[in-house]
Amino acid sequence: MYFEYYIMGIILIPGILFALYAQSKVSSTYNKYREVLSLSGETAGDLIKRLLVTTDLGHISVKQISGNLTDHYDPKKEEICLSYDVYSSSSIAALGIACHEFGHALQKKENYFPYQIRSILVPITNIASTLLWPLVIIGLIFNFAAMPGSIVGDIFLWCGIGFFGIAVLFNLATLPVEYNASKRALNILSTTNILTEDELKDTKKVLNAAALTYVAALLVSILNFLRFILVVNMHRD
User: Which residues are catalytic?
Assistant: First the structure.
């Protein structure tokens, strides 16, 4: 089964190619617009601190972190983490990325439903990723060694497949959350007049490119899910 599982990896090729394209797109787009400074001159770090105060989210801290495009919102620690390049930059790319992460903080504050769903799925997905392969291995042992042809092995195998499905659900739930955060970011930058109309168009290109990575993650998870189902069914026939 392991041999067939890796052979069936050919199913993942479209997803892998799209993921490589998405990563390339986000890197090239970010590198292009990180050099374009906004006319407002306000840095991303200062902007987010100001927005947190004006939206009654002053309890959330803004933290500088290392890495490239490692920016994220940590709901447990109540931190908006911005990479050094983004935090201290007034580029239209940096402002867009920072406001995107601020958008996640707003989602939590407003109990945005898709955000709540994804938050619920996070610990479930972590548990599923830990138990997935042990369940599969136990299922294989029952099917091919301990109790060939028994329903016990099938139960374990299908539990493993179910955990693959949880990964699909998580990535599916992530899409509306990320697109909504980008929409909020563009709205904030527009209504506060931080960026001009032309600057907003280019910032949107950065956020749209970043969103492709989440589409790619969903595609790969779906293909991996189908791959495992096909391999298991081959052994049932």
Answer: 101
